[in-house]
Amino acid sequence: MPNGQVEKVDEHEWWNTIGQLREGSQQELVVKKNFGRDGQNTLAHIAQRHGLYFNAYNKGKTLVFSKVPLPDYRADLDERHGSSQNEVLCSVFVTVNINICVFLLTLCLNYGQIKMSNETERRVENLLSRAQSNNNASASTSTVSMRQSLPSTSTAVAESTTYVDKQKLSFQLRDMQRSKKMMPSARSMQSFREKLPAFKAREEFLKAVAANQVLVISGETGCGKTTQLPQFILEEEIDNLRGADCSIICTQPRRISAISVAARVGSERGEELGETVGYQIRLESKRSTQTRLLFCTTGVLLRKLVQEPDLVGVSHLLVDEIHERGMNEDFLIIILRDLLPRRPDLRLVLMSATINAELFSKYFGDAPIMHIPGFTFPVAELFLEDILEKTQYKIKSERDNFQGNSRKKRLASVKNDPLADVFQDVDINKEYGNYSITTRQSLEAWSVTELDLSLVEGTIEYICRHEGEGAILVFLTGWDEISKLLDKIKGNNLLGNSNKFLVLPLHGSMPTVNQREIFDRAPANMRKIVLATNIAESSITIDDVVYVIDCGKAKETSYDALNKLACLLPSWISKASAHQRRGRAGRVQPGVCYRLYPKVIHDAMPQFQLPEILRTPLQELCLTIKSLQLGAVASFLAKSLQPPDPLSVKNAIELLKTIGALDDLEELTYLGTKFYCHPSIVPLLKFYCTCFYLLLPNFDLCRTTSMYTTTGSKHWKDAAHWIRLPVPGSCINNRCCSCLS
Ligand SMILES: Nc1ncnc2c1ncn2[C@@H]1O[C@H](COP(=O)(O)OP(=O)(O)OP(=O)(O)O)[C@@H](O)[C@H]1O
């Protein structure tokens, strides 16, 4: 290669080559190639990611990767060593001046630092003593080193300054981590953390992260995957003086888990939230320039990827609760699989419950799977039959008729519910022969479709009267049930006493500040009762919860193919969700889970839920993909873990074009695009919708999310889309513009 020609860096190849040095016994790797300044920066970054040192010599033509710190000058690598015609002999005077400059520069750079670590001091000393020895050497023979170490341009000065700044930040972060670890509160947290199963897997996990670009973690409830694994990476990076360059993102499916997990990890590290650990959710964040581990919702990361497709600066990405298969999570992994070849240094960790881990591993080219066993305190499980027996609660049949065949008839009329069919086949007297007649009569009268809120109230009352202390977490399907149960509790003789019971609702549309209240401990002599939807199902720990009441259902989007309608209706949860709900008790102390459905129903539940991408109407899916700017719909969806039928996707796009939500180039039109409107223009929006309704009475404007409140004001936001209504003007979802008031 002609002298001076700059070679291109093949990042992937160099990532592997430098990685081999780290694994092998060789101490350093010397490369005599000119990759130019950009190439050197890339290689320096790769070396840093591997925890190695890097330096360039001979005007960047000799590059060294090493396991030990490298000096600024290496005589053994100097091309000109021994060839006197290239040497520049400086006078003692010039050399002394240069050394003074180095000294002053070092002083300036150190100015303002609160505390300098021993290592930093040693580095400065080394720098000064090297300057001193160079000074001595220059008096006699060669001073080539001076020429080498002197920055020739202002860019070089800026680069070395950045490097020194980063080194300092890394030292600072490490010193801070060490000193915080010594604090008594952090020490007691540390001994708790060491008991979690994740701690035993710490070394294996860190090795696997270093050795593989993608790692799938299958961890059971309570093993510590959410709070510990991102923290292990953070500690390791900071300990190895890579803190300045490390940026870890951990996604959570919901706002509440992003905030609560960040708060927990921060307190385990003995820090205020927003120091090295922070969070970011829609319209709210707590982070600083020091933040190295950021918990955010999957939606926030998706939007970041639109602006920053290469996720520059992010070193590790952990995607939690991936098994939930929400739409955002499925979209995210499609994007990430495309991103990985462009970012060979990025580390991706997919964290899932035990089910499904192999599916994700296959999707990412047989990525290794690591299993971590769970840890929970014992949680006793009671099913409907046991609860009825204990509480002596009597379920009233609508027809007040307890004969076996009337139950069968009633259940036979329930459409599209395989679990109703299962219960229909049960011979109550035979199956529940050991239970009292009252229990059997109640089981005969039990409705598979309607949740009996009086039964929920009765169960809460039973716990409060007969069981020990501890908060109660009730899983319901939606706001309607939450508010009705709140009313019932208010009117209850025992539970209505607001001096003894603190009842808190928890729903996704509530402002974050109110959602957070569920984590606060109730005042002394009060029992906390949280009425929640499935947003409390995973990742969160309410540390005083001892009792969980599970109604067995959750509202989920499904598609009514007959009416071509999107429905948000209560459906039976999967076994995986039931397990997660139970797992909210027993995290800090033993607990009890009350399931308000018979065991036969639980045993017949599907292992896991159908992915949201396959439950959501395709038109809605297409508009979401467009609003997130993810490219051509069909090719994007074809890359998904379980792609929808391509013909149906094509039809959906055609329909969206016909109604004018997409144009011929498949771009969002004004109708199909996002609406961001202030409450003041809602009347205008309604007028606009009414006009549209007159033209196309079978369609109405619908929103994926309706309303949220920040700083007291209301906003309408998110993707608006058209749905087809079976009867003009009717909307069963309560989500159409005509329903918004
Ligand atoms: N805010 C908290 N207060 C008290 N203990 C907590 C808190 N957060 C976590 N823990 C403890 O740490 C353990 C591990 O929590 P973590 O959230 O990491 O579990 P996980 O493996 O992600 O489980 P899951 O998938 O069920 O959420 C919990 O079981 C609990 O004992």
TrEMBL record:
It catalyses: ATP + H2O = ADP + phosphate + H(+). GO terms for molecular function: ATP binding; hydrolase activity; RNA binding; RNA helicase activity. Residues 458-629 form the Helicase C-terminal domain. Its EC number is 3.6.4.13. Residues 132-151 are annotated as: Disordered. It holds the Pfam family DEAD. Residues 132-145 have a biased composition (Low complexity). Residues 206-373 form the Helicase ATP-binding domain. InterPro entries: DEAD/DEAH_box_helicase_dom (IPR011545), DNA/RNA_helicase_DEAH_CS (IPR002464), Helicase_ATP-bd (IPR014001), Helicase_C-like (IPR001650), P-loop_NTPase (IPR027417). Keywords: ATP-binding, Helicase, Hydrolase, Nucleotide-binding. Coiled coil: none annotated. It comes from Aegilops tauschii subsp. strangulata. It comes from the Eukaryota. One of its GO terms (cellular component) is nucleus. This is RNA helicase. It is an enzyme of class 3 (hydrolase).
